[in-house]
Amino acid sequence: MTALTLDRLTKRFGATTVVDDLSLAVPAGSFLVLLGPSGCGKSTTLRMLAGLEDVTAGRIRVGDRVVVDPAVGVDVPAERRGLGMVFQSYALWPHMTVRQNVGWPLAVAGWSRDARRDRVAEVLADLEIAALADRSPAQLSGGQQQRVAIARTIAPRPDVVLFDEPLSNLDARLRTETRALLGRVHRETGATTVYVTHDQVEALALATHIAVLRDGRLEQLGPPEELLERPATAFVAGFLGSPPAVLVGGRTVGGRLVRDAVDLAPVPSGADAAHAMYRPQDLVIDPGGQLAFEVLESTPAGGAHLVTGLLGGADDARGGDRVTVIADRREAPGRTTRLRVPAAPAALYGTDGALL
Amino acid sequence: MARRPVSWLAAAVVAVLVVLVLLPLAGLAGATVGPDADGAWADVVASPLSGALLWQPLGGSLLVGLGTGLLATLVGAYLAWVVVMTDAPGRRAVGALAAIPFALPSFAIALAWETVFRNDRIGGEPGLLAALGVAVPDWLAWGPVSVVLTLVAHYYSLSFVVVAAALTNVGGDVVAAARLTGASRWQVATRVVLPSVGPALLSGFLLAFAEGVSNFAVPALLGLPVRFQTLSTRLYGAISTGDAARGYVLSLVLVAVAGLVLLAGQRMTRGRSYSTITGKATRAQRLRLGPARWPLAALAWGIVVATAVVPGVVLAVSTVLRRTGSLDGGLTWHYWVGASDPSVAQGTRGVLRDPVVLDALGGTIALGLAVAVGAVVLATLASLALRALPRARALHATVSTLGYVPFLVPGVALGAAFIAQFGTGSGPLPSLYGTFAILVLAGIAASLPFALQTARAAFGQVSTELDEAAVLTGAGGARRFGRITLPLVSRGLANGGVLVFVTMVRDLSVVVLLVTPATPLLSMLTFRYASEGFTQHANAITLVIAAVAVVATLLARRLERRPDLETTR
C-alpha cells in the first residue's frame, strides 16, 4: 500500500530555506491537503515528492520504498516514481489531441493498443469529456482542459496522485463543480492524493488530512475537524474557518492575560500567554462590552451577518487586531461600538504561538 | 535526473562556440602582432601611409554610418508616424511596403541605383539617365551621397519597425489623459509621445549606424569608382591584394567601431522601454491631417515605392534591354538565355545557360542549407543544455556572450578573422582556405546570434511543465524530446532556419574574402559582374537570388500551416 512519509525534509535555495525540517505521514488512500499562504513551501514540497525538485536533506517514502534520501545517495528519478500529477497550468501537450494526451502515458507505460483504447474511452466517459476526444487542447475551455488533465493523470491508475493548485485558474462556479469532481475521482480511484492549495475552503471540503505550512514549517497536521476544533497554534486558529477564530492579543501580567487594562483570562503558572482564542459566534456586539470595536464592514451570510472590525482596548479601537464576529444584525461601517467577550476563552496561545 | 550526458553536451556546445567565435577573433588579433605581421599596427596607425590606410577610410565609414543612421531614422520615424498615428490614405499598404527593402539584398538597391544613375566615369554602358541625355554628375552617381542614400533605402525598414511598434504601444489612454489636461497637440507630441518612443528612435539610429559603418557591398559598388573608401572596402582591398596583416588591423578597428556603437546603444536603451501597465490598450485616436493629408501621404508613398518597388522593376527591366537604359537597342532575352556571342558583353553567356552561374546557384543553395541546418542545430543543442542546467551561471554567461559577439563583428571582419585563423593550417587544424567548409563555418558563426535567439525563444515558449508532465508518465529523456519538446519547438526552429537561409543566400560581406573560384557563389558573381560593368548579368543574378529567397520564404509559410495547432474557437 502507498502511505506517504516525509521525514525531516529540507529544501534550501542558496541561503534561503524554503522547506524546513518537515516531517509528516499519512496512511494509504488519504487525501492530504498542503495548505498555507503563498511562499510557505507547499508547492516545493509537492515537487520534491514528484521528483521535479532536488531535496537538500531528509527522506521521502512512498509506500515501503524510499524514493529520495540524499544522506544515503538515493534519488529515484521522477519518471520512475510512478506518481501522477495535475499541474496548475494543466500542461496539456498542445500538439496532441485529447485522446493522444490521455493515451500517451499509457503507451509509455507499455499498455497494449487495445487496453489503451479501452482505458482512454473509459476515463473520458467517466469525466464526461468523451465528445471532446479528437479536439486539440487549444479548442477547449479552461474547465474542459482541467478535466483532460485529470483524465490524463488517472488513466495509468497511479497509486499516488499530486495536484498543484488545480482550481486556481477556474472561475468561482467551475471551481465548486470541479471540487466535487475531484472528491469523486478520489473516492473511485482510492489513490493516495496530495493536493496543494492556499484556499482553506478547498482544503476543508476535500481533505482527510490537512497539513498547514507556514514559512516552510509544519504548523499542524490532522483531520479538518481537529484543526478547526483544536488548532495547535495561533496561526492555524487565525487561518482556518470561515470566519476564522477570533484571536485577541494581550500581555501576561501577574498570572493573567490582560489587554489594555481588560482582564481576559487566568494563565497557567509559569506560562507566558500572548493570545486568547474565541469562537466567532461567542462574541457579542454590545455597547456595554469590555473592548472597543470599530466596524469596518458587515456582510450578510447564511441568515446572519459577518461583522469585521478593528478590536481595541478598554478605551480606543484604533490600531488594534482585525477580527470577524457573527452578529444577528447588520452593523453600520464606520461606527464605533464595543464587544463583549465570554468569561473564559476557548484556548490560550503562548508568545511562540503554541497552544498552552 | 541524468546529469552526465547533459554536462557533456554543455561542454561540447561551449567548445564549438569557442572554435567558431573566440578562436577566429583571437587568430585575427594574433595575426596583427609578431614578426610575420611586420609592424602592421605601426604602418596603419602611425606612418605616412596611415592617412590612406586608416584615417580616410575611417572618416568614410563614420560619414556613411552617421548619414545612414540619421536619414534612416528620420525616414523610418516619419513613415511610422504616418502609418500608426494619422489618417493618411493607404497607410496600411505603406506599412506593408516599408518592410520590404530590408528583405532585399543591399547590393540589389545599389545595382538599381547604378542602373539609373551610372555615368561614363567608368567603362561599360551608361545608366538610364545618361542614356536619356542627362549629364549625371559624379557626386550623384558615385561616392558618399549615393552610398548613404542606397543604405538608407535599405535600412530605414529597421527604424520603421521599432518606432512603429513603440508608437503602437503608446496607449490611446495615455494620449487621451494628456489631452484632457488641456495640453495642446504640440505639447502632447513633444512631452508624452516623443519621450516614449525615444528609446526606439535611438536603437533604430544605432542599428542603422552600425550597419552603415560596416556595410561592404554598397560602398564597394558605388564608392570605389571614385576612390571613396570605407574601412570595409579598404580592408577587403588590403587582404585581397596580399597585404593581409594590415587588413587584419583594419578589421580590428572596424570591429571596435561597430561593436562599441552597438554596446553603447544597448547600455543607453537598457531599462528605458516603457510598457503600458493598463490591462486594456486602447488605440490612440488618429490624427486628422486635414488638407495636409494628401501631400503627406504622397511623400510616404513616394518613399516606399522608390525603395520597395522601383529597384526591383529597374533590375528586371534592365535585364531584357540590349543596351542599359535605352530602348533603342531593343528587347532581348539574351542576358538570361543567350548563347555566347562575342559582340555582347565579351561573349558572356546568358545567366541561365552559364555553367558557372548554375554551379554558383547550387553552391549558394548548398551553403544556405548547410549554414541554416548547422546554426539551428547548434543553437538547439545550446538551448537544450541551458534549459537542462538552469542554475549553471557560468555556462549561461559563456553561451550568451559567445553567441552574441558575432552580432558586434561586421561581416567582412568576420571573414577576415576566419582567414586569419583557418586560412593556413595551424596545429591540428588543416588549412581550410578555398574550401566549402570555411564558408559554412563562417556563415554559422555569423548567423549564431539570430539562431540562438530564435531557438531560445522557441524553447522558452514551451513551458517546463509540459516536459515535467511527460517525466511523470515515466518517459525517458530521448522519448520526451522526440514526442513532446521537438514537435513543439520545430515550427519556431524551422522559421529561424529559413531566415538564416535567406540571409546567407544574399550575403556578400561574410563570404567576399573567403570565396575562391573553387567555391562559386551567386552573390560573389553579381559583385564581380557589377565591378566589370556587366550590368545586365549582375542584375539578372540578383533577381535569381531574390527569387531563391522568396521561394524559401513561401515554402516556409506553407510548412507552417498545421491544422492541429489551429484554434477554431
From TrEMBL, chain A:
Cellular component GO terms, alphabetical = ATP-binding cassette (ABC) transporter complex, substrate-binding subunit-containing
Q: Which residues form the signal peptide?
A: none
GO molecular function annotations of the record: ABC-type ferric iron transporter activity; ATP binding; ATP hydrolysis activity
Entry keyword annotation includes DNA-binding: no
Task: Note one Pfam family from the annotation.
Answer: ABC_tran
PROSITE patterns xref list: ABC_TRANSPORTER_1, ABC_TRANSPORTER_2
Q: In its keyword annotation, does this UniProt entry include Cytoplasm?
A: no
The name of this protein is Sugar ABC transporter
What organism does the UniProt record list as the source?
A: Cellulomonas pakistanensis
Q: Which lineage?
A: Bacteria, Bacillati, Actinomycetota, Actinomycetes, Micrococcales
From TrEMBL, chain B:
Kindly list the GO CC terms recorded for this protein. plasma membrane
Q: Where in the cell is it found?
A: Cell inner membrane; Cell membrane
Which coarse location class describes where this protein primarily resides?
A: membrane
Say yes or no: keyword Transport present: yes
What CDD domains does the database record attribute to this sequence?
TM_PBP2
List the InterPro entries hit by this protein, alphabetically: MetI-like, MetI-like_sf
Q: Which UniProt keywords are listed?
A: Cell inner membrane, Cell membrane, Membrane, Transmembrane, Transmembrane helix, Transport
Record domain ABC transmembrane type-1: where: 58-265, 361-556
Membership in a protein family: Belongs to the binding-protein-dependent transport system permease family.
Query: What are its GO biological-process terms?
Result: transmembrane transport
The protein's matches in Pfam families, at most eight in alphabetical order, are given as: BPD_transp_1
Q: Which organism is it from?
A: Cellulomonas pakistanensis
Q: What is this protein called?
A: ABC transporter permease
| Record field: transmembrane | 55-81, 93-113, 139-167, 188-210, 245-265, 296-321, 365-389, 401-420, 432-452, 536-556
Q: How does it sit in the membrane?
A: Multi-pass membrane protein
